Amino acid sequence: MRKLQILGPGCPKCERLAKEAEAAARELGLEFELEKVTAMDRILDFGVMATPALAVDGRVRAAGKALDREDIKKLL
């Protein structure tokens, strides 16, 4: 099972990234868990300085932009 984490304060871009990540994982038929990480100390623990960010299985794959579904699929 993949663990997808959306790192950000819950802004509109963060919400869009969460929706696109969920849709991408479903389209790929992946078993996944989606977690929204909003606590700034936890976000900084990932080394992220720009949000939103996407982490897959604990590894940051993109930061500072809300990726579209096709880009997310490539990262998964």
How does this model look, in words?
This protein has three helices and four strands. It is an alpha+beta fold and 76 residues long. The N and C termini lie close together (12 Å). Helix 1 crosses helix 3. The relative contact order is 0.29. Helix 1 (12-27) links the parallel strand 1 (2-7) and strand 2 (32-37). Strands 2-1-3-4 form a four-stranded mixed β-sheet.
Query: Total number of β-strand segments?
Result: 4
Q: What coarse outline follows from CA principal-axis ratios?
A: globular
The profile of the biggest β sheet is: 4 strands, mixed
Termini separation: 12 Å
Topology:
Blueprint: E1 2-7, H1 12-27, E2 32-37, H2 40-45, E3 53-56, E4 59-63, H3 69-75
Parallel strand pairs: 1-2
Antiparallel strand pairs: 1-3, 3-4
Helix pairs in contact: 1-3
In short, what is this structure?
By secondary structure, the protein is of the alpha+beta class.
Keywords:
single chain, 76 residues, alpha+beta, 3 helices, 4 strands, 38% helix, 28% strand, globular
